[in-house]
Amino acid sequence: MSSHHLKLNLDKTELLFMPYKTSPLLDLSISVDGTMVTASRSARNLGVVLHNQLDFKEHIRATARSCRFLLYNIRRIRPYLTTYSAQLLVQTMVTSRLDYCNSVLASLPACAILPLQLVQNVAARLVFNLPKFSHVTPLLRSLHWLPVVARIRFKVLTLAYTAAKRSGPSYLQDLIQHYAPARPLRSAAAGGLALPSFRVKGSCLSQLRSFSTLAPQWWNELPTLLRSAETLSVFRRGLKTHFFRLHLD
Fold this sequence. Notes:
single chain, three-stranded mixed sheet, 10 helices, Reverse transcriptase
């Protein structure tokens, strides 16, 4: 930064150390221009709170808290809104926050995602101005909203499609490979992706949840017709229909 005449704001500089599960816990610190920067357990980057264990619990709590605050304000003006206006307002202010960078939450346990799903349930009831314990599934079906878990998988598979079709970023394309069997098989024409080869027992959790692992696994579970979609818009439309039937029908 000094060679490019850029000033580093040390008051906003954080050190985040992500140790491997067998690494010793180290009290790390670095010195920059005579100022000590000590390690912290979490740091915010582009609106995503990264924890040193990559469990994203703090990020989920922050997202749920901000969404609940917005829903509280929308509820105050809900008597003056039509159902359609309330839906647009919720989708613009709340659903967009639930979808922002949600691919980092891929493969987290259901109990970790539950706070975000509860927020979506409250938002659906608010759109239709229904009581607290109203059944949510018919409301999600009427709004054409996928559950949070499905929305996360939808985002990952959309990125996988762009990488598989060589239209996405090169750093994503390098993480996946098309399945090519050693001898001619019918599965070679199914458009599948090669699964990474590593020992699951000796693999860390972040590796099991990485894009290079989850994308081929989830991609190969899709119907062959869906994987062979010619355009991204056709794939997204078919993928939403597939998840809609899978989760809400």
